[in-house]
Each structure stands twice: as C-alpha cells, then as structure tokens.
Amino acid sequence: MSRGKDSKPHIGIFGRRNNGKSSLINLLAGKETAIVSPLAGTTTDPVKKSMEIPGIGPAVLIDTAGIDDSGELGMKRISKSLDTLKIIDLAVLVIVDNNFGHEEEKLVNSFISHDVPFLIIHNKSDLVPLELKTSNSIKNSYQCEVIEFSAVNALDNNQLLTALAAAMPESAYTSNAMVGGLFKPGDAVLLITPIDNEAPHGRMILPQVQAIRDILDYDGIVMICKENDVEDFISKANPRPVLAITDSQVFGKIGSLVPNDISLTSFSILLARQRGDFANYLKGTPYLDKLMDGDRVLILESCTHHVTCDDIGRHKIPHWLKNYTKKELQFDVVSGLGNLPRDINDYAILIQCGGCVLTRKQVVNRVKPAVDAGIPVTNYGMTIAWIHGIYDRAVGMFQL
Length: 400
What we know:
Elements: E1 10-15, H1 21-29, E2 47-53, E3 57-63, H2 71-83, E4 90-95, H3 102-113, E5 118-122, H4 132-142, E6 146-148, H5 154-167, E7 188-192, H6 206-217, E8 221-225, H7 230-236, E9 243-246, H8 251-254, E10 263-266, H9 267-275, H10 278-284, E11 296-300, H11 312-325, E12 330-334, E13 349-352, H12 360-372, E14 377-379, H13 380-387, H14 391-396
Parallel strand pairs: 1-3, 1-4, 4-5, 5-6, 7-8, 7-9, 9-10, 11-12, 11-13, 13-14
Antiparallel strand pairs: 2-3
C-alpha cells in the first residue's frame, strides 16, 4: 500500500475482527465510510479514507483486516495490514471485552519495532466496561493508557479526538526543506532540466516542481535552463547562481560546464537528504567500487510508470554500472512498495530512487531491511555521481 503523493498524517486502525474498527472510522468521518457488519471479517484489504479530524486537520484513516483472521487468505490479509506500519504516523489498537491477548501483544511489539506511536482503545464500553485489571496490566507492560470508549457517548468521542491529536507525532506534519539552507535570501539557484523521452508532456517532473517551490519559500531566485544551454546561460546570468541543481542523468556532461565556484548537486541527491536514509547512503555509496562478478544489485523505484528505453532505473543505471565496474552484475528492479523477489541477503547493494512520491518514513523503512542486514545502500543520484567522478562535489556541501 503506497502513501503516494498523499502527505497528510496517516492513522492505522487495528484490532480483532468485529471489534468495531469500521464503526470507529465511520464515527470519526461523520458518515458511513467503512462497511459495518456483525459478521467477522467484513474488512479484507486495508481501506484508506481521507477526512478532516478536529485537532489534526486533513488526515487519512486506514481500516485494516482483523489481526485474528484465519486460513491462508486470512494470513495474507494480516500481512497486508502489517504492511501499513511502513506508512502510518499513528496506530490505534481497538480492543473489546477486556481482551488483550497474544495477537494484541504481537501487534503492539510491531508498532514499537516500526517506531510507530500508538493508542489503545477499549471499544463498546457501554456493553462491557474496561476493568482496572486490564488497564493496569497494559499500562505496566507498555506505559500506555487505555482509552475507554463507546460510540453512543458523545463525551467519549471528544476524549478520543483529544487523545488522537495529542499522540500524533510532530513529524507527521513537517518535512525537511529540500533546498532551504543551501543559499541565502536573494541568491539565485539554477535548475538544469533536460527535456527527454522520460519528461512528461507539457509539464515538469515532481522533484523539479518541489525544488522551485522550496527555493521560493526560502526567498531565492529561480533560474531554469536545459542542459544544452548551461554554459551560455551561466556566462550571461545576472545575478550569477550560487547553486546549480541538475538531473542526475546528465551529471557527466554538466560537471564540466558548471564552474567550480558554483555549488553543484542533483534533484535526486537533494531528495536523498530530505527524505532518505542519507547517513547510510553516504556510507554505502563507496561500496560500488567493491562489486564483484555475479553480484546482484537491487534497484528500488518509488512509483510505477511506463517503461521506456531511456528508463533510468531499469536501463541507464544498470548499463552505467556494468561499464564502470567492468563486472558481470545481475539486477532486480522493484516498483512502488511491492515485495522483493528474493531474500535481502542475496543482494550486494541496494539503490533507492529519490522517492519524490514517498514520505521519509516510507523511504527509510524501504531500505531498512538492507541496513539491518549490513548491506550497503545508496540512491540514484549518488550512484550516478560516483560513476561519473563527480560524487565529492555533489555531496560536499552536505558534509561541511
């Protein structure tokens, strides 16, 4: 399940079948968004719904399948529900009848391991009240208060909204600047934007648009030209740009055209710093020089798109890496947030795209299995900069 371009805070609703998860979502939404039924297992795949939540603002609630689902299909539903931990900012665990057992314990441990803050709600408390024994046991184990809740009590609804707003981490609302901090107000920043077969017709790609907005937000002056016009443009530019940002694919050409007194980096590297595991990318990139014959390289794309002969992840990077290393390498490319085709330990290095349509949480969680396994990780722009001998210049401004 991809969070995609939806940057609103995401809240996952978890619990056993028929615990009232869907009813809770409908109450928060103020209308019937999720299907409610007395039959256990009504919710199958995770379902997303955008809504306005008082105290939080625009948010996305995700209704998940029951954690006590059974059978082969049920296990697949549970697996999909757990996949949402990679994208949510806050988890809500719904229990009833003072039932907090092995399934709930496993789920809370998953929240903790994914660094997801969580709330525990004792639902349907008008039918079976929360017992002090249950509340104290959960509090002692997880330092978490249990919220007693009933959909028929309006005061409980207000208490729940207050608890959700208080538990939502600040990181759900904020993101690091893409370009801010790399120039002073009034400085000019040059964007070098190739128009090739991969460029969308009639518009600019998302990282370019994000960079333009970020430069303007930090009171910079935006200059834009194509790669073939760089040398002439800079010679005539007034004011002279203090920073040039290029598409990584033309690093080899642009590096010699942008004078050394102008800082140079790429959109992909800026995205790596903004929303990727940048520290581990810096550590992992030099391992490109250690690749051996037969090594398998994992390339992760954020989005799904029509593949062309100029595709950077599927064609250009593999071609450049083979030419650079002079090794017989094997490549697996995975789009979106899909499952890997083989065990992570089968790979010698992981190369993540910039992640322009993902959040930092998604990108970091995407590469986390490799980091945990001790496998080097890097990203598209840093890989291309390394291959073209421009790496130190492209990342130098971030290592000061």
